[in-house]
Structure formats: structure tokens, C-alpha cells
């Protein structure tokens, strides 16, 4: 007869019960995991954070709470709760010490993202809890429980709580604490339900009224914890919609201008756009403000910050922008480094200056700028700047580009500018 690959109900109970004994080794592993996760959050590195969650032992007491409540085992429940609080306390203190010693203490995107839990975190915890109990029932070692630990992110919120403690910032501390509470509660509640479905034997005799009362208590707890996350999810959705609308607005209405960056300040209802190149008049800004209504941004104020110094625009910015424009038009950008490795350094600098000045003056009217080197019959080195105007430019635009190029090359006889189709 083939041996079953899953544990019996009693074996499952024993496995979870044995897993909640406090061990020095587990505490040390937890501290190591917390430090690794804190480094990952500090350096904005998701792979490091994931690695830390893989070695974290914090799932065991959460499952123990669900098992203890479902089987009316007060001793198991108390031991699991005690271990969870102990591990959480060690984790928060270890994270706070790390940030105290770390030379980098700014709030990275990874840290900030752990302070605003939403309903999706609760949903992930629910399905993660189901998967975790299924994994716990398997006799053979598997990666289900570690996978659940990653998906439900139990470790990072504790690290952020430590960060909030170090910074004495209540918003970070309590935001992360709520995320940890959401994850722990819904994994526990799901474990409670799975144990009920599996009909694991209760550890004391209970009547139906007492059992029904506990089920209602778990439902009430779930609803109470879920309400703030629903509100947070609504806020997040509104921010994302505003971001998408703003991106569409800028890409459609700012085509004559080079946009360095755009930011949506949802708290102050402002869309901040940094531009360089042709200066926007007050009438143009007012017209753009009126157009925002067509992108569902009626309640947003447009703030245009114009960078007057074209030297602040790096060649890397220009190349990145031209590459993005080429992808939009599904063409290949010809912008590339000088072809000659031994090119004259003075010519190179002049070519780069011409490239910057032309692009700054005619943003969105140039598809690509190619820098080349050539050699005359006399062995002298010359530079060539090939400018490809956008397909929709007028003859006047082409003439203006050539006039600007002639001015830039007036004192550079060894550099020529050509317009290509």
C-alpha cells in the first residue's frame, strides 16, 4: 500500500506544536534575517529582501496561533503568541540598531512602500495562509512555506518599524505595524479556517454556542482589521489613476518641449513638470492648465518649472530622450558614440557642445543626432554632426536648424553639420 504524502491531523498538530518552542538558534537566524532585510530595504534591493525572508523562521508562531484558536488549545495559543511577540521584539530592536549604525538612513522606496498596507495585502495573506497550511501538511520538504513568507512580507514591516523607532517617526512605525498586523491576522485567520475544514480534533470539549462565538469573533476581527486597508487601497488607486492621467497629459500636450521629469503631488493636487528648451509663456501655461480637464485632472494645479541653463542637460539625458522617442515611433535611434576611438579630443568636445545646443533649442523637432569622425586626404581629422529632423517638421524648422548649426560651427572649420532625411 502506497504511503500517504500528507500528514495526518494529529501529525500536523504535533508538527506545528513542536515548531513554536523558543530556540536560541531560531532567534539568531531571525536577527541575521532582519539585518539582511534591513540592508536590502536600506539599499533599495528587492533580491536582498527576498533572500532575508527565505531564511526567516517567523511563520511558525503565526500558524501556531491559527491552530491553537481552531482547536481551543489555550496552551498552544499562548505559547505561539509569546513566541511571535518575542521574535517581533527582537526583530524591531535589531533593525533599529542596524539603522543606528548605518551611514545611509534616508527612507528608500522599499521602506516607504511598507508603510501603506492595502486590501491587496490582506488578500495575499489569505491565499498565502491557505498555501502555507497546505505546505505544512506535506511530509516531504517543500518551498511552499518559504514562498508564503516572501509573498506575505512578514519581515520587512518589522524592519521598517525598527527604522521608524530609530527615526522617531510615528508614521513609519505605525504604518509598518499595521501592515504586519494585517499579514499576521489574515494568515492566522486562514489557518484557523483550514484547521476547521480539516476537522483537527479539539483539545477540550466545547459546545456549539462557544464554537459559534469564536467563529464570529474571528470574522469580526477580520472585518475590523480590513476596513483601514480598504480605505488605503482606495487612496492608492486614486494616486495611480492620477499618475496615469498625468503621464498621458504630458506625453500628448508637451510634445513641443523637452520634459526633464514630471511629478504628481497627490496631497497638494499639483502636477509639477520640469522642462528645458523653448520657454513657455503665461498664455501657454494657462492653455495647458485648461487642457488638464480633458485628462480627468480638473482639481490639479499645473506647475511648470523651466530650466534656463541648457548646460544642465547632460548628453546622457539627450541620448535617453532620443532613444525613448525612437521607441515611440518604432524606429531605431542613430544616436551613438563617435566611431573613431582615436578621435581628436577637441573635436569631440565641440561636437558634443553642438549636439547639446541643437537639441536644447529644438527639442521634439529632432529625431536623432549622430556624431562621426572622418579623415581628409591630407590626413587631417574632421568631425561630422548628422541631424535627422522629426518627420512632421516644416521647411521653416529645417531652415532654422541649419541656421543655428551654421552659427555654432562658425568658428569650427573642422566640423560640419548635415541634415539627413
TrEMBL record:
The keyword Membrane applies. Keywords: Membrane, Transmembrane, Transmembrane helix. The chain crosses the membrane at residues 27-43, 49-72, 84-106, 118-136, 148-166, 172-195, 216-237. Pfam families: DUF389. It comes from the Bacteria. The keyword Membrane applies. This is TIGR00341 family protein. It comes from Candidatus Enterococcus moelleringii. The lineage of its organism: Bacteria, Bacillati, Bacillota, Bacilli, Lactobacillales.
